[in-house]
Each structure stands twice: as structure tokens, then as C-alpha cells.
Task: inverse folding
């Protein structure tokens, strides 16, 4: 007999991964939405249910949902539950882009501090892009 | 309905060698609350007082809206205390223990009990004497959870449990609070687990409540600050409350920084160079706070 049954799945969260657990939940849900696995109007589990699935405190999931709600990615309807917002996909993408912009800015700053001139910086970026492929 | 499952105000309990309190403690309904603190800080004393074991010298304790002494019977019907010292062997077999305990509690949930037996891999015919330590712990937890108590108090529930058992226990505790009405209070030294599973924490040290609140807010509030001072080793002036020097080397300093204190502003006035702030785990924070202000060796 197996106790495994179908769960609401998002990318794994772990204390060993980067960022606080609630932030990881925010990021994973954004990714689900940005990659189209969660479409607008989809109901999300209650935060108590998701806490059970992810094995984290209720307050961790609550905080993640509050953050996603503040960014307009999900919305709550009293008594009905929590849903992916109509514009959740765009918003997720926007937030991801903003995060990428910040990370790039930070990377470029580090490279500048290491003495890399601007034209070599562009070269570095191209190299990294090639690695990805 | 009272939003708090436990409200302790000004609790004092005096022993010849140790005084607990005055302590305030607030456990919101629907929460998993982690009571943490070094050995001998007063955690078990506080729990004993909540459960009416021993008489407090001052203060009030309200549990599920009941006064802990005047309404002791009602309280004990709705609250369960899982004690590590509980002797289960007198019932010889798991099934017998279950049949015995269920008779006392009208709210006993047979279906849930069966579900827990599966989850904890316990069988009715298992001999209690030959159960592993972990299985005995799970049996005490099963006997408490099956009563469907509104408040479950656990003293060191995961001591000596392997990682799999520990996760089973926390999984069941999360299910137990899933309806938002039931409350769990855990005293524990497993701070990694508490950080992950507890919504609220209270940190007791030397009989006093040092910190209490939402786990994430408390962990978020502190940082390890590293900075360099310009001239020599001396930190100018007295260090404010909220900044505890942990380590230093020449003009390089590492300190625990309480971001809700005046310390961040003070640091700015001290011309601290290359200031970096690093997050801590609850365990790191615990060590830094508990070591703090202990007399120097």
C-alpha cells in the first residue's frame, strides 16, 4: 500500500536553498504561473493545506500568500478561497524581470569592482548565455 | 471567542533554587507554538503550571478561556498533555492502551485513531514493552491526538526520534491545526524543526520570557553585523542594548544586531566601515542570545 496521493505541487522548497522559506514559496508559485502551469482563476490550496503539503508552518505559507496578494499575482475571496489573478502571469513575469535586472546590476557591479572594463562585461554576458545553451 | 488558547499574565513560581517569572505568555488559537530555552530555563515548570501541576505563587493562567484551577476539569477534558515520562507499559499492548484511554474521552475519534495507527506504523497487537523509543512516543501522541483536544501540549516530543519519525510527527501536528481551531504548544530543543514548523515562539531564559512572537518576525529582526572600525580596537563609547559583540579581531567586529533597537542608528554614528548584515537561523540566534550576558569565564 502506498500513502502517496496527488498533491498540489510547486517546485521543492528547502532550508538548504537560497532565501527564506516563505520567499521560496513566493518564487516557486510565481514560476508555476509564469510558466503557465497555473492559469488565471485557478484555485490555490488554503494556506493550512499547503503548509501540510510543504511541511512548513502555517505562518510561512500565510506570509507567502500575503506577499503574492500584495503584488497582485493572486487574490483572495472571503469564504471562497485564493485564486491566481487574471494578470498574475504578466505580473509574475514583471517581477521576475525586475529580479533579473537587480541580479544583473549586482553582477555587473561585482565585475566592475574586480576591474573588468565595460566592453569585456558584455563579452562575459555572452559567455554566460552560451553556457546556458 | 477568545483569540488566544493560552494567556499567562505575571506568572511566578518560586522554588528554593529557582524562580520562574514573572512571565507573560500568549499562544494564539490555531497556532503551533514553540517554547524554547536552555536547559533549566523554566520551560517544563511553565508547562506544569499551565496544566495545573503545582500551584503558582502569583499571576493568572487562562487556558481555552478557562481559569486553570477553577475550571480544571473542563480544561483537562479539552487539553491534552503528552509527557515524555508517561508509562504506557501497564497496558501491555497498543490495542489495550487505546481501549483504556478512549473510555475517558467522549470526543474520542475512532477513525482518526485508525488513521494515526497507519501513519505511525502501530498495530493493536504490538507489545508496548518491545516498542522502540520512537514508537512509544508516537503511541503517546496517538493517545492524545485521538481525543481531538483543542489544545495539545507536548514536552520534548521529538527527542530521540529519527528524521522519518520526526517528520511524521510534525506532519500530523500540521494536520491537527489545519482547521484553525486547534492549538499545539511544543517545548523543544530541536530549533531547526521549531523554525520550520512553529508559527510562534517564546524564548525563556533564566525564568524570564526573553522574546515572544511570530517565528518569522523574530528571526527577521536580528542580523549578524560585521564591520570595521577606523582606529584601533576600541569601540568608542558604551555599546547600546541591541548590539552584542560576538567576536572581534583588531578593528574587525562581529555582533548580534537587533534591528528594532537603537543599535542600527548608533552604528551609523560610529563610522562603521564595510558594514554587512547576515541573516541567522533560529538556532544561531538562540545561541547568540543565550550566551549573551553570561558571566565571562
Result:
Amino acid at each position: 500500500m502506498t500513502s502517496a496521493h496527488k498533491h498540489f505541487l510547486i517546485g521543492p522548497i528547502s532550508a538548504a536553498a537560497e532565501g527564506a522559506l516563505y520567499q521560496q514559496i513566493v518564487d516557486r508559485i510565481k514560476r508555476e504561473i509564469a510558466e503557465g502551469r497555473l492559469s488565471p482563476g485557478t484555485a490555490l490550496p488554503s494556506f493550512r493545506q499547503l503548509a501540510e503539503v510543504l511541511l512548513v508552518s502555517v505562518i510561512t505559507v500565510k506570509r507567502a500568500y500575503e506577499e503574492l496578494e500584495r503584488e497582485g499575482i493572486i487574490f483572495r475571496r472571503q469564504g471562497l478561497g485564493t485564486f491566481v489573478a487574471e494578470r498574475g502571469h504578466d505580473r509574475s513575469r514583471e517581477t521576475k524581470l525586475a529580479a533579473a535586472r537587480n541580479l544583473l546590476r549586482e553582477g555587473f557591479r561585482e565585475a566592475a569592482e574586480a576591474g573588468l572594463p565595460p566592453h569585456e562585461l558584455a563579452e562575459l554576458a555572452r559567455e554566460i548565455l552560451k553556457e546556458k545553451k | 471567542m477568545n483569540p488566544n488558547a493560552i494567556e499567562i499574565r505575571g506568572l511566578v513560581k518560586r522554588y528554593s533554587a529557582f524562580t520562574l517569572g514573572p512571565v507573560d505568555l500568549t499562544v494564539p488559537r490555531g497556532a503551533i507554538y514553540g517554547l524554547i530555552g536552555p536547559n533549566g530555563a523554566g520551560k517544563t515548570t511553565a508547562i506544569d503550571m499551565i496544566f495545573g501541576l503545582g500551584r503558582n505563587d502569583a499571576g493568572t493562567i487562562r487556558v481555552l478561556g478557562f481559569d486553570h484551577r477553577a475550571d480544571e476539569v473542563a480544561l483537562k477534558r479539552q487539553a491534552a498533555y503528552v509527557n515524555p515520562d508517561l508509562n504506557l507499559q501497564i497496558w501491555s499492548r497498543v490495542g489495550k492502551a487505546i481501549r483504556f484511554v478512549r473510555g475517558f474521552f467522549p470526543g474520542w475519534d475512532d477513525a482518526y485513531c485508525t488513521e494515526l495507527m497507519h501513519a505511525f506504523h502501530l498495530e493493536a497487537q504490538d507489545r508496548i514493552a518491545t516498542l522502540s523509543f520512537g514508537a512509544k512516543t508516537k503511541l503517546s501522541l496517538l493517545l492524545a491526538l485521538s481525543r481531538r483536544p483543542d489544545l495539545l501540549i507536548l514536552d520534548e516530543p521529538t527527542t530521540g526520534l529519527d528524521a522519518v519519525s520526526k517528520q511524521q510527527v510534525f506532519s500530523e501536528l500540521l494536520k491537527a491545526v489545519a482547521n484553525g481551531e486547534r492549538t499545539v504548544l511544543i517545548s523543544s530543543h530541536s530549533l531547526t524543526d521549531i523554525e520550520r514548523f512553529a508559527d510562534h515562539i517564546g524564548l525563556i531564559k533564566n525564568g524570564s520570557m526573553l522574546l515572544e512572537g511570530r517565528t518569522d518576525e523574530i528571526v527577521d529582526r536580528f542580523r549578524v553585523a560585521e564591520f570595521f572600525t577606523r582606529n584601533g580596537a576600541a569601540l568608542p563609547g558604551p555599546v547600546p542594548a541591541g548590539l552584542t559583540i560576538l567576536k572581534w579581531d583588531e578593528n574587525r567586529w562581529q555582533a548580534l544586531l537587533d534591528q528594532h533597537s537603537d543599535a542600527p542608528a548608533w552604528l551609523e554614528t560610529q563610522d562603521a566601515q564595510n558594514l554587512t548584515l547576515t541573516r541567522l537561523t533560529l538556532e544561531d540566534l538562540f545561541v547568540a542570545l543565550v550566551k549573551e550576558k553570561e558571566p565571562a569565564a
